[in-house]
Amino acid sequence: MNPPTTWSLLVLTLPTENATARMRFWRALKAKGCAVLRDGIYLLPYSEEREQMLRELAGAITDSGGTAHLLRAPSLDATQEAEFRALFDRSEDHAEFIRSLTEARKTVSGQSAADLTKLLRRLRKDYETIVVIDYFPGDAATRAEAAWQDFAGLVDTVLSPGEPHSAELPISRLSVSDYQGRTWATRQHMWVDRVASAWLIRRFIDRDASFLWLTSPSACPADALGFDFDGAAFSHVGELVTFEVLMASFGLEKDAALLRLGEIVHVLDVGGAPVPEACGFEAVMAGARERAAGDDQLLDEIGRVLDSLYTYFASAAKNKEERTLQ
Prior knowledge:
Elements: E1 6-13, H1 19-31, E2 35-38, E3 41-45, H2 48-63, E4 67-74, H3 78-86, H4 91-108, H5 113-131, H6 139-159, E5 183-187, H7 192-205, E6 210-214, E7 225-226, H8 242-249, H9 256-270, H10 278-291, H11 295-325
Parallel strand pairs: 5-6, 5-7
Antiparallel strand pairs: 1-3, 1-4, 2-3
């Protein structure tokens, strides 16, 4: 039998003369997923981080003219444990989210890349808002996660048809000098990993590279170096996306600025830990793809964005190194 849950309890009286402050505190409590035991008594399963948040909130309530006391206690018995856990049941939230995905699927066809990107971002935020306060996930959470992954995969397919599958292969170290003046080929209508990989090739591997934008991977000429599709010379390997595989193949993985760019490409292509700059780059990418007359123009435009990001990250890495040496 699992040990009883330890709970953080916030007992409060909100300021009566400051309606704005009361609303702000109510919203904060709701956003953190606090359960209401009765008026003025809020409950959360204990963690150091959550209790620190409640402690800061209690201080703000006191500073605004209210009162707040933070307590910690375990469940008394199995009955109380079940009663308290039931207060955090997010089954209906997950069900409502699945219904919103069902409706959203009906609108995917025919939307622009920019609109699809906005839709995906909004629904991802909705999903993450539920997950972060689902402290006792169950079957409903599992169903919602499966539905979300399925929907995200559908949008990715629309945005990037022919997305490659990851292979479990060793990554050979290659010499840049053997890859000069080559023809490189990838699927047309580029999205993040492909356009970033093309930029990386032209900027750090083959400055005289020429590119072919393929209608289908099967159209790749035998003498061209394919990238970011199944069977290509360079594509996903293990957890690495094509951009990261190219970095590893040509010994670029020690470049701190490229590593930062790789984090952005990775999270936008296959997901992962949030990266602060990723959302902005995704928006720029979606807008540029709408405006560009073709992939050559898209590469030129996004290439300048990546140049700027690279310069920024390189400068930040240099400054950090200089501070370390001081």
